[in-house]
């Protein structure tokens, strides 16, 4: 019995020593587990804080929408003129191709998957789970989820293509490069003008802008 008690005591001390050593090694190596519910350091509470500060007055949203409408119509007019001139003028045809290449490069984005992940979570926090496919497709058309996307013609900026881009400063001073800030602003704009992403995508399908 004495031998058994000694054995149990030795094993218990060994387990405790191993656990302490493991904790020390994690602290020395600087590796710590990611808090549950965080997405690259941004928690659900952080997202909610951004969302709660990005609600927009419907009148302000209407003004932004009208600016986007005018910019879209002007862009389409310019594009039509370029297409017509391209039929007669090789130089104009080359200019048209260069413009299309700039637009393609503006939408090229290696971080699109991460930005979509933020968008999906923040959209869900708004209570719009059913409209996620609409939001995903809408902003794929607008910017390919690129936080640095810029429209060469209108100057519209970022994932939601805010026009002008500095309108997003109302959601945060880091609006130029922060995808969560841009997403929060974009969802506020959509809520004020279209109620939800389902409505925004339905409008875009008829007008090619939102």
Gist of the model:
The chain is 66% helix and 0% strand.
Globally, the shape reads elongated
Assembly status = single chain
Biggest β-sheet, characterized?
none
Distance separating the two termini: 81 Å
Strand content: under 5%
- Nearest-integer average pLDDT: 82
Low-confidence stretches: 8-13, 15-29, 31-38
Helix proportion: 55-70%
Instruction: Provide the gyration radius in Å.
Output: 26 Å
Following the backbone from N to C, one meets helices and strands in this order, namely HHHHHHHH
Strand runs, count: 0
Number of helices: 8
Task: Draw up the topology in text.
Elements: H1 2-29, H2 44-52, H3 58-88, H4 90-107, H5 112-125, H6 132-142, H7 179-194, H8 197-207
Helix pairs in contact: 3-4, 3-7, 5-7, 6-8, 7-8
Detailed description of the structure:
α6 (132-142) crosses α8. With 210 residues, the protein is mainly alpha-helical. Residues 8-13, 15-29 and 31-38 have low confidence and may be disordered. It is built from eight helices and no strands.
Give the key terms.
8 helices, 66% helix, 0% strand, mainly alpha, elongated, 210 residues
